[in-house]
Fold:
Amino acid sequence: MTANPMLGVLFHWIGGLASASFYVPYKGVQRWSWEIFWLVGGVFSWIIAPWIFAALRTEDLFGVLAATPARTLGLCYLFGALWGFGGLTYGLTVRYLGISLGTAIALGLTAAFGTLIPPLVSGQLIDHLIHSTSGLIILGGVAVCLAGIAIVGFAGRSKEREQIAGGAAAMRNGASFRKGVLVAIFAGIMSSCFAYGLAAGEPIRQLTIAHGTAPLWQGLPVLVVVLLGGFTTNAIWCVFLIARNRSAPQLVGAGADGAASPLLRNYLLCALAGTTWYFQFFFYTMGESQMGTYGFSSWTLHMASIIIFASLWGVALFEWKGASRRTKAVLCTGIALLVVSTVIIGAGNAFAA
Structure:
C-alpha cells in the first residue's frame, strides 16, 4: 500500500475529534459515582470495542497474538499499564492547575516525549531525521505544535484569571501550583507510554499483515494488548474506590444520592462514551499506517488534533464566556499554529514518501 500522509492527517483529525468528544455522553449519566461510570465506560473503551473491531477488520486475530513473541506482548501490556497511571493522574493535574493550563503542560510533555523518544531509541532520530530535508520539516512541525500547545495553555491561564472574581488573589496558591506542575509532569511523561506501547507492537503489525490483514488495519491487534494494560491500571483503581465508597449497588440501579438511577440510560451513555474514546485510537492506527517512513510523527498529530477540537468544544460550551477579546485572539493563534503544525508534519511525511 502506498503511503498517503495527507489522508493520514485527516484520520488523525477524526481521532482527535473522538478524543475531545468522548466525555460529553458522561455528562448525561445520572446518580452514578465517577468510579462507576468510568469503569463501565472503560470496559467498552479498553476491552469490548478493541476486540470487536480487531476481530472484524483483521485476519486470524487469535493466531496472530498466539504467534507474537512473549516479550512483545509483555512490553505492549506494560506500556499500556504505565499509560494508565498518566490518565489517572491527569485528573489531579486539572484539579491543581485548571483545565487549560493542566492540559497544555500534560499534553505538551506527552507530545514531546511520545514523539521524540521512540525514534531516539531506535536511532532513527540521529541517523535519518536530522540529516534529511523531510526529517527536518517534521521536526519543525513538532516544534510548531509545541509552541501552539504553549500558547493555548497561556490563553487558558488568562481566561481563568479574567473569569475568577477578585483577580490574582483568588487564583490557586503557590503550593498548589508547584504541586500541580509536578503532577502534570508525571502525567505527561506516563501518558506518553502509550506511544511506546504502539512502537513496541511492530512485530504484531508484521504478523497480522503476513496473515492477510490489510495494511490500513495493521494497528488494531496492537491496541488489543496495549489497552488491556490500560484497563488493568484503571480497573484496579476504580475497584478500590468502589470498595471504599461502597458504590457497587449503583451498578444494579441504586443511585449515589439514594434515589433510583436510570439504569439503561446510564449504561447506554457509558457505552457511547467508551466506544467514542476507543475511536480516537481506531483512527490513530489508520492514520499511522498512512504516514510512511516517519510513522512516529503520528503522536504529535494526535495530540495537536485533541487540543484543537477540545478548544473548539470549550468555545461551543461557553467555557470562554467572560474572557477578553485579547485572550480569545491568543486562543485562536494557538489553534491556528496547531492546525499549521499538522499540515507541516503531513507535508514532511509526503516529501519523504
About this structure: The chain has 14 helices and no strands.
